[in-house]
Amino acid sequence: MLQGLHHPIESTFGSQTSQDTFSQTDPYLQLHQIHKTFGRFTALSNINLEVRRGEFVCLLGPSGCGKTTLLRIIAGLEEPDRGHIWQAGQDITALPPSQRDFGIVFQSYALFPNLTAAQNIAYGLVNAGIPKAKREERVAQLLALVGLSEFGAKYPAQLSGGQQQRIALARALALSPGLLLLDEPLSALDAQVRANLRGEIVQLQKRLGVTTVMVTHDQLEALTMADRIVVMDRGSIVQVGTPIEIYQQPQTPFVARFIGVMNFLPGVLESSEQARCQDYRLQVSNPKAIPVGSLVTLAIRPEDIRVGACASVNTLEAAVLRFEFLGAVYRLWLRVGDGLELLLDLSVQEARQAQIQRDRPLLIQLPPEHIHLFETQP
Question: Rounded to whole angstroms, how far apart are CA atoms 179 and 242?
Answer without folding.
Answer: 20
